[in-house]
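quick one, two chains, predict together pls
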Amino acid sequence: MDSLRIEATSCSPLIDFDPAAGLLRIEGESYPENSFDFYAPVFGWLEEYLKAPAPAVVLDIGLSYLNTSSIKCMIDVLEMLDGAHQNGQTVSVRWHYDRDNDRALDMAEEFAEDVSLPFEILAH
Amino acid sequence: MKGNELFNLQELLSRQKLLICFSGPFSHSVIEELGKAVRNHLENERIEKSAIMDVFSVYVEQAQNVRNYTASRETLGRPIPANSGIVVIGKDGDHYVVSSGNLVEADDVPGLSAMLEKLRGLDKAGLKAVYKEQSRKPREPGASGAGLGLIDMARKATRPLEYSLRAVDDAYFFFSLEVQL
C-alpha cells in the first residue's frame, strides 16, 4: 500500500502515514476551510490500511489546536483505530502536547476518555 | 464614509476596548489572517498560552459559523442579502469577549434560540455531557460543521452565552452572540 503524505499549511496539519513501519503522524494545527474534505483522504486511506496493517501501528499526534469540526474528524480517526484494537490488532496512540498549553492537555484527555486502545499523553 | 461618521465609528469602537473588528464577507483567508493578528497581539500582551488559545478558538468557531451558514444558504440557492457578518474581539475588565453577528433566516430562529436556551441552562458537567453526545453522532452528509461549535464555546465561556435575535424583515433576523472568556 502507498504511503500518505499531505504537507502542512498554516491551518491544516502534516499527514505522514508510513504503512510498512506502521507509523502514522499528524502534526500541526487544524482549522481548514472544510475539515471533512481535508480528512476524507485520511479516512479512505485508514479504512483500506486497517484491513491488513503492520504488526504494530502507532498514531503519533502533535496537534496544538483543532477547531470543532477537526475534533469530530479526529474522534472518527480514533474510533477506526479503536475498532482495529478491539479486533486484536496492536494499535496505540501517542499524543504530544506543549506543557505550556493546558488546553492541549485537556483536549488530549477528552480524546483518551472515549477509546479503549493504549493512549499515552506526552508533555514536551 | 464621511469623515465625521468615520470619527463616530472609531470612537464607538475604541470605547468598547476592541482588539479587532471585522465586518464584511467572510472568506477562509480573512478568518485565517485575522486569527493570526489576534494571536500575535495576545502574545505581545504576555497572557497565558491557554487564555490565548481560548480567545483564538472561540473566534475561529464564531467566524467559521458565520461563513458556513452564509455558504450553506448560497448552496441552497437562497443567498443572504447584504452578505456581511461581523466579528469583534474586545476586553471587558479582565475578560476577553468574542462577539459575532449575522443574518439568519426566520425559519432557523426557533431552533437556534432553543439550542442556546438549552446551553444557557447547563452547568459544566451538563455541557460536557451534551458535547460528548453530539461528538458521537455520525456526520451529516453535506454538513460543513459537526454541530459542536456552540457547545464548545459554552464550555470555554466564564458565564452563560449571551445572544439576541432581532427581526430585520419578514425573512431575516439579525443574530448576535457574545462569549465572555
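Chain A has a mean pLDDT of 95.
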